[in-house]
Specification:
The chain contains 4 helices and 5 strands. 26% of the residues lie in helices and 15% in strands. The longest helix is centred in the middle third of the chain and has 11 residues. The mean pLDDT is 92. With 109 residues, it is of the alpha+beta class. It has a 3-stranded antiparallel beta sheet, with helices on one face.
Length: 109
């Protein structure tokens, strides 16, 4: 947005919508290492099982926005987990591959 549309960082607002929450996004060591290699250590929580970890995708996306220069006060993060509320959201992790899809509508003004 900054390069292609000449937006000023202070004018960018971002919303991180519902997605699988840290409560359900359990991964193995391989995925954890990928997050660690990008400096997203604070997004990694040790799981109960050996070699299992939980990743906070919302926090990871927020960190990427902060690194890009978006002000923290301009970032809104949904508290909803798609895996926790399958009556409201689709969740591949909770329901398997036979689910619907979600979409985003964004606007430049």
């Amino acid at each position: 947005m900054i390069n292609d549309y000449l937006c000023k960082k202070e004018n960018i607002h971002a919303i991180i919508g519902p997605c699988i929450g840290v409560c359900h996004f359990e991964v193995g060591t391989d995925v954890m290492i990928e997050f660690k290699n990008t400096g997203l250590n604070k997004c990694i929580k040790k799981g109960e099982k050996p070699d299992k970890y939980y990743i906070d995708l919302k926090e990871a996306n927020k960190e990427y926005l902060l690194r890009a220069g978006v002000s923290e006060k301009n970032i809104t993060v949904s508290g909803e987990c798609t895996c926790c509320d399958t009556r409201k959201y689709f969740s591949h992790r909770a329901c398997g591959a036979d689910t619907g899809r979600m979409a985003v509508i964004a606007q430049l003004r």
